Amino acid sequence: xxxxxxxxxxxxxxxxxxxxxxxxxxxxxxxxxxxxxxxxxxxxxxxxxxxxxxxxxxxxxxxxxxxxxxxxxxxxxxxxxxxxxxxxxxxxxxxxxxxxxxxxxxxxxxxxxxxxxxxxxxxxxxxxxxxxxxxxxxxxxxxxxxxxxxxxxxxxxxxxxxxxxxxxxxxxxxxxxxxxxxxxxxxxxxxxxxxxxxxxxxxxxxxxxxxxxxxxxxxxxxxxxxxxxxxxxxxxxxxxxxxxxxxxxxxxxxxxxxxxxxxxxxxxxxxxxxxxxxxxxxx
Length: 283
Hints:
- By secondary structure, this protein is mainly α.
- Helix 11 runs antiparallel to helix 14 (about 250-280).
- The chain contains 14 helices and no strands.
- This is sn-glycerol-3-phosphate transport system permease protein UgpE.
- Belongs to the binding-protein-dependent transport system permease family.
- It is a multi-pass membrane protein.
- It holds the Pfam family BPD_transp_1.
């Protein structure tokens, strides 16, 4: 039997035009601060000292970006952010995948109770535990270390919930077929189940990386030495009396430079987000 052909009526396209125009207008509003920041970054500091309205007038210059290349501190902060964000993301992916598989596919005592306790972590704000965490890390001498900056983010309640739901969506017939072939639980997880969850892992990895890259609260508390600053803390520390020191254009160029790695990561892996949301991992 032939499947019915899908036809698109002009009336439906006409009805959707107001929504498209509304989305376009909202996109422009959201992009306005980004365009303003980029405009500031390509203006000389002397012009900006006379007024920021010079953003809309020529000439433009790349001298602020060239000054970044001559600043060793920025590249040190960038390296710290890369190490912390990458380690944070890998830790969340490993622990969330293992915990999600355990909650979704294994039977053990108090499984539902433990899962509910993990979900309570979504309701606890980070500010509520910051004093206890600070004292604990001080006692362990983990402040001003990469491990100290990464470790608090490993316990991701959202990551455990996401991976649990994704593992539950995979048919259990796959597990049973593997068990008939005498495959161990770890082999089933590593060779069969984990590859099927790559879209969910990519989605979780992107959100985790972006969150770790833009994190300001914990690095501000844990990193007290300048050489251990992440990019967000380093840029913020250089904004004091910016008009008399580096200049507004240079700070804007630093902000654009800091956002480029996160944008690149998102553009590379954005298709996995669509696949995960649409549930296209298992057919």
